[in-house]
Amino acid sequence: MNSSSLQYRIYLVILVFVFLIGMLGLMAIEQFSALDALYFTVATISTVGYGDLHPATPAGKILAIIIILTGVGCFVGFVANSIEYLIAQRERKLQIRKLNMISGVFFTEVGTNLLKKFSAQDPAIEEIRSVLLVSDNWSDAEFSHADEVLKNHIPRLNSRTVDLEELKECLIQQKGFLLSLLENPQLVEHENFIPLLLEVFHMTEELIIRKRLTDLPSTDYDHLTEDLNRIYGFLIAEWLIHMKHLKQNYPHLFSLAMRTNPFDADASPMVE
Predict the structure, then answer these.
(1) Phi-psi map region of 47: left, alpha, beta (phi>0 left; psi -120 to 50 alpha)
(2) What residues does each domain of the chain span?
(3) CATH of the domain spanning 3-90, picked from 1.10.10.60, 1.20.1250.20, 1.10.287.70, 3.40.190.10
(4) 52: three-class secondary structure by DSSP
(5) 32 CB contacts (<8 Å, ≥6 apart)?
(6) Helix, strand or coil for residue 138?
(7) What is the pLDDT of residues 11-31, one digit of tens each?
(8) Side-chain half-sphere of 131: how many Cα atoms within 13 Å?
(9) Under a CB-based contact definition with an 8 Å cutoff, are residues 178 and 110 in contact?
(10) 8-state DSSP, 134
């Protein structure tokens, strides 16, 4: 929770408390009706002060002073923070949209191709394939179910069966593009995407630094296997988020992403 949101909630709680104390106090002390008590409290706090209602007892006047001292400042603060909060929410939505656009470019250029390569070598793909065949009639419930299934899924790629040379060439070709994404300052706000990019860069360096990618020691294959499965897990989770975003905001882009689903063996970009 950011500071503007916290201040907004604090002012709101105090304002509601002042309203309740003011109304109940006026009803008990001045014998105002509930409507009159509300009317007087609103008129006082908003500084309108029509003057057609006023406390007649010393206790009522003291209560009115308390309402003025606490309520007016709180009301002004609440209004100011409400405006700030709404502006912050609007900027946040715009920021999220930009971040999702960056994520979309990543999957168009790199991510979907990597998922095709990895899923083709995943012996456990049938355990999750059904929840990754996203369709245009999916609701939030289907996306949530798929997310739960993926959280319990353990990727089982094996670096011994993955074509590491091909993967290396693919990552080298996209290294400049990936660097340009990583240099984007807006990605600081993207908690899930940054780790994915870093893992892809790490995998690229692991493959480049080796003089050969065949006949490696068993321990080295095991190390690369861990790296591959870590990237694969990040990719699948981020891809699902990306698909949900497209479905909710860009139906035409979602249609193409659905027709090129890397987990669908029968996927075709052709509209049939």
Answers:
(1) left
(2) 3-90, 94-259
(3) 1.10.287.70
(4) coil
(5) 26, 40, 53
(6) coil
(7) 888 888 888 888 899 899 989
(8) 20
(9) yes
(10) -
Give CA–CA dist 172/261, Å, rounded.
Answer: 24
**For 123, left (φ over 0), alpha (ψ -120 to 50), or beta?**
alpha
Residues 6+ apart with CB under 8 A from 150: 128, 131, 236, 237, 240
Q: Which residue's entry shows tokens 């882009």?
A: 253
Nearest to 240 by CA among 153, 122, 161, 124: 153
Phi-psi region of 247 (alpha: psi -120 to 50; beta: other; left: phi over 0): alpha
Is the overall model pTM greater than 0.90, yes or no? Answer: no
Question: What does the CA dihedral 144, 148, 154, 159 come to, rounded to 10 degrees?
Answer: 10
pLDDT tens figures, 211-251: 899 999 999 999 999 999 999 999 999 999 999 989 988 88
For residue 42, what are its two tokens?
């609103």
Identity (one letter) of the amino acid at 21? Answer: I
